[in-house]
Amino acid sequence: MRLAQVDGAGLAVVDGDEVVLVAEADGRPFRLSDVLAGGEPALAAVAEAVGRPGSSRVGLTRVRLRAPLERPGKIVAAPVNYVNHMVEMSEVIDIRSLGVFLKAPTSVTGPGGVVRLPYTDRRVDQEGELAVVIGQTAHDLPPEEALSVVFGYTCLLDITMRGGEDRSLRKSFDTFTPLGPWLVTADEVGDPERLDLTCSVNGTVRQAANTRELIWGVARLVSYVSSAMTLEPGDVIATGTPQGVGPLAHGDTVEVTIERIGSLSVSVSAAGAVTCPTAGANRGPVPPPPPDR
After folding, report:
1. Are 150 and 110 in contact (CB under 8 A)?
2. Which of 59, 149, 182, 280 is deepest in the core (most CB within 10 A)?
3. pLDDT for position 293
4. pLDDT for 113-125, tens place per residue?
5. 17: how many CB neighbours lie within 10 A of its CB?
6. Do the Cβ atoms of 270 and 124 come closer than 8 Å?
7. Residue 208 and residue 67: Cα distance in Å, rounded?
8. What is the tens place of the pLDDT at every residue in 144-171?
């Protein structure tokens, strides 16, 4: 099932090129937080609402989608989780030494949103990633049980300012976590470690990989995160990005596409950008040269 948040209408189910606006039997709109926490019975209620006589169907192109999770409880992200990205960034360590970091929930924006570049004098790159959405409270899960708490998956862009400041700062500016276009339940995605991923800027593919290339696969990553912090319904885990990161500029369009999930597209704006007040520009990991534009 593909669950979307429709601007002004709440939760909807994506069915081909239409969205079905769903509500409880008494007419109250479903809340995604309740569906996430409710598991199979809640999903069954949503499926029943889709088939209920009088359910409202609208063309997908006629609605504005919001981020499927506009304020996750926490966004946990994996640094350097593809070997080829470690090489391109001239890193000598990867997730096995770095662990994970947190991004601000307020950095989320939705499909069709605008990534706002904060500074005129700092490089900001795109990073396309698979995002895992948690559906159950869990702590200290072994890898073989980790996928049992995954509700579903979505596309994520981990927009990143390069430099020596802490990752959680450089990746947490407002609009730096585009998420969407919808949330696909785990049963529909199947094996999350066999998904093709591409990320393009202005129609030119910069990143192309398969999640089987992850250093720590989804199950191992979820297990590790759960050993450090309690996972709760609605938490998001970003699994890391492959090689091909590159700088963004005013007017760019960025799109990440993941097999069996969909495509998330956003634009980029430098309107209102100012000079950066911190001095980390020439420190930290060394990014690859900009691609030909």
Report:
1. no
2. 182
3. 62
4. 999 999 999 999 9
5. 8
6. no
7. 24
8. 999 999 999 999 999 999 999 999 999 9
